[in-house]
Amino acid sequence: MVQTIGRPPPGATLIHVAVIDDHPIARCGVEHALETVADMTVVASVAEVAELQRLLAGGLEVDVAVLDLYPGGGTPAIDAVAGLAATRVLIMSTSARPPDVLAAVRAGANGYLTKRCDTSVLIAGLRIVAGGGFLLCDELSDVAHALIAASDTSRPRLSPREDQTLRMLARGLTHSQIATQLGVRKSTVDTYVERIRAKLGVGNKAELARAAIEREMSPRMAAW
Prior knowledge:
By secondary structure, the protein is of the alpha/beta class. It is about 45% helix and about 15% strand. The longest helix has 15 residues, at about 185-200.
C-alpha cells in the first residue's frame, strides 16, 4: 500500500524524504522522528522501491530516499539501490556486515546507517546526503577500520595524514571539522583532499568516501 504524505508548502526550503521499508511500524518510526524537524518533510512512505519509482514518474519530488536494505529479511536489495540512481539514497539497515555496506555503496548509496543509530544521527545523515555529501555512521566506521589490511602495493599509497583525512570524509565530516580534529588549518586539509583526489583519481566527496570504504573493506571481503 502506498501512502503519500502531504506535500510541503510552496516555496519552502525543505528536504523531501521518502521512506522505503516493508515494515509499517518502521516507516512510522521514521515519519515520527522527522515530523518536528523544521527543514524536513516525509513526502512518501512505501513498502517497495517500485512503488516509489511510480510516484517519482508521476512527478513526486524526493531529495533523499531512506531505504531498508533487507526488505522481507531475505536478500539485500542492492538492485533497488541502483534502481534509484536519480535519487540520493541513505541506507538504514539492521545489517552492519562489511559486505553489505560495500555492496550498497558500490551500487550508488550515498550513506549507510544501522537501525541502532540515534534519531539525531538519522537527521544529520539526511542533511549530509541531501547536501551532496556522504555519511557512514560511527558504528560502521569502526567495523571498517577493524578490516584494514596490510599495505596493498597495487593501490595508490596515501600518507598517514591523507589516510586520516579520507576516513573522516567517509564519516561525513567537513573540511573545517577535519581541520579541528587534526589540529591544522582548513587550507591544509584542502591540500590533503586535493592530493587524495589526484592519487585516487576521484572527484567529489561521495566518490572520496566510496574510495575510503573500498580501500578499507575490500582486502578482507573473502573472510565474511
